[in-house]
């Protein structure tokens, strides 16, 4: 076995890191099952705690939350017909009817089992594909990296909203915000208006806390004090029977394959993978008429896809430095705080840590399975807790986390300002995800652009003469044109 692989496994298997993974899994299931909370919000709340932790512990905690959050979303979807996460929407189609028939335990057992299999499938994809892709990415030059990041932004804008214009507008606003502070090449001040507080720019983690957490808190105010009905229902055995396991082999295989593949594509995400998997599972089923009425296949396929997306999304994050979804964008921020930049150089300079991340993902799936089965009956009691107890604690975490980044109250004000931006975008139905990724990738995009133009003495043909750069630029144009065309077809079909 390669020394770096062995070192990564031992690092991920340290008792403190295993404990962090288990705590993350417990938090993830809890956050995932609470209707209205998202995995992104959960990670944003926990993120400030990782600033004082070892990098290995930090990523173990966050990966545990990421993986288990997907599974937790199926609990409320099955018991309440309210998906805890967007990715669990497809699970509710058959999970809730099963619960209505008195088979809630059976549905939850299938969900947990399918999630575990999908997660482990994506682990093997991550283990075998990521190092190979990193070796290829090491051949990229500055202009190639610019075109790659630009492609990532365009494809995410294309898939992030029903309106491509709104998606592009969100990304442009994010790129404009990134220009505040010092010029990355010349070091001159830009758009600071003489204020020393913003000379170092807007910290993207402060912006992320405001964009995600504040709208979440405001949206929960209407439900403060309410208790969720139906969470305390009694259900039978959770462990799936052998007959059910045999029945879900095909849908789990479909969900795992589709989820891992779509997870690698930036911006596609869990909901799309879940519904595509559900559709394919229905078409390939021997009993398609049972779908929508309480089919275990209809539960297994989207749940396998949900967790397969997680490993798939980590592949572009670790090898190219491009997040596959909003959660991996936040994970990039967590790594940057510890001085570790995801990308091909991570496997070259810190291969032990890179493999440590991969094996932490493995342990996250193991703990997700163990905690889900052993603690399910107790965990679902959280669904009946009034939000009046949770919201103040979340608000406190947001304030403390923003202040802790640079020990400045200015960052707290910035966090609230971005909270207002997030609320405005929510009311205008403008997606936040393109802005989020623009804030994360914007500095790299500008830096690679400036360096490439400097090396070519201002000749823009450098982006078209490089084959790799030209391919990514062509794909960027295709993604935008395709989105415009599909949007136009939908409008024509609806009239």
Q: How is the topology of this model organized?
A:
Layout (H helix, E strand, L loop, with lengths): L2 H10 L2 H19 L5 H8 L8 H26 L8 H12 L3 H34 L4 H18 L4 H15 L2 E2 L6 E2 L13 H17 L21 H6 L1 H16 L4 H16 L11 H25 L5 H12 L6 H6 L1 H29 L11 H16 L2 H19 L5 H23 L6 H4 L1 H28 L1
Antiparallel strand pairs: 1-2
Characterise the protein shown here.
This protein has 495 residues and is mostly helical. It has one domain. The protein has a two-stranded antiparallel sheet with strand order 1-2. Strand 1 and strand 2 form a beta hairpin. Helix 2 packs parallel to helix 4 and helix 4 packs across helix 5. About 1% of the residues have low confidence.
Q: What's the mean pLDDT score? A: 80
- Whole-number radius of gyration? 22 Å
Which quaternary structure do these chains form? single chain
Number of helices: 21
Task: Estimate the strand proportion.
Answer: under 5%
Number of strands: 2
Number of domains: 1
Structural class: mainly alpha
One letter per element, helices H and strands E, the order comes to: HHHHHHHHEEHHHHHHHHHHHHH
Helix content: over 70%
**Ends apart, CA distance between termini:** 61 Å
Shape: globular
Low-confidence stretches: 226-232
**Strand order of the main beta sheet, please?**
1-2
Please describe the biggest sheet, giving its number of strands, its sense, and whether it closes into a barrel. 2 strands, antiparallel
């Amino acid at each position: 076995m390669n020394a770096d692989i062995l070192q990564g496994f031992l690092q991920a298997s340290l008792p403190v890191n295993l404990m962090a993974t288990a705590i993350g899994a417990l938090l993830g299931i809890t956050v995932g099952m609470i209707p209205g909370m998202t995995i992104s919000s959960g990670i944003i709340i926990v993120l400030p705690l990782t600033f004082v932790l070892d990098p290995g512990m930090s990523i173990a905690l966050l990966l545990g939350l990421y993986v288990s959050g997907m599974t937790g979303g199926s609990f409320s979807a099955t018991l309440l017909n309210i998906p805890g996460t967007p990715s669990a929407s497809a699970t509710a189609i058959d999970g809730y009817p099963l619960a209505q028939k008195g088979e809630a335990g059976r549905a939850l057992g299938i969900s947990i089992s399918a999630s575990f299999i999908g997660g482990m499938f994506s682990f093997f994809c991550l283990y075998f594909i990521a190092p190979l892709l990193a070796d290829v990415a090491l051949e990229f030059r500055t202009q190639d990296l610019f075109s790659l990041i630009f492609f990532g932004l365009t494809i995410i804008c294309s898939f992030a909203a029903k309106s491509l214009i709104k998606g592009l507008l969100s990304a442009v606003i994010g790129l404009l915000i990134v220009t505040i502070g010092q010029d990355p090449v010349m070091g001159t001040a830009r758009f600071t208006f003489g204020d020393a507080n913003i000379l170092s720019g807007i910290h993207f983690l402060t912006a992320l806390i405001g964009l995600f957490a504040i709208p979440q808190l405001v949206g929960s105010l209407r439900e403060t004090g309410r208790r969720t009905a139906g969470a305390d229902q009694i259900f039978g055995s959770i462990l799936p029977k052998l007959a059910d396991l045999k029945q879900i082999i095909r849908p789990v295989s479909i969900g795992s394959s589709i989820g891992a593949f779509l997870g690698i594509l930036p911006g596609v995400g869990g909901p799309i993978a879940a519904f595509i998997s559900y559709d394919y599972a229905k078409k390939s089923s021997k009993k398609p008429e049972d779908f929508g009425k309480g089919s275990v296949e209809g539960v297994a396929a989207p749940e396998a896809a949900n967790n397969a997306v997680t490993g798939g999304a980590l592949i572009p994050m670790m090898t190219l430095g491009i997040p596959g979804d909003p959660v991996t964008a936040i994970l990039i921020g967590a790594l940057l705080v510890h001085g570790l930049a995801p990308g091909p150089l991570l496997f070259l300079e810190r291969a032990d840590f890179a493999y440590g991340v991969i094996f932490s993902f493995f342990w996250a799936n193991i703990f997700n399975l163990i905690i889900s089965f052993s603690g399910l009956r107790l965990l679902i009691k959280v669904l009946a807790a009034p939000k009046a107890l949770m919201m103040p604690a979340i608000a406190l975490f947001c304030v403390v986390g923003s202040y802790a980044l640079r020990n400045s109250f200015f960052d707290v004000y910035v966090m609230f300002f971005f909270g207002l931006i997030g609320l405005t975008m929510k009311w205008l139905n403008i997606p936040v995800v393109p802005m989020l990724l623009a804030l994360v990738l914007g500095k790299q995009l500008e830096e690679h652009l400036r360096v490439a133009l400097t090396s070519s003495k201002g000749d823009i043909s450098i982006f078209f003469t490089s084959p790799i750069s030209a391919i990514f630029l062509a794909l960027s144009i295709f993604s935008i044109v395709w989105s415009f065309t599909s949007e136009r077809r939908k409008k024509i079909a609806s009239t």
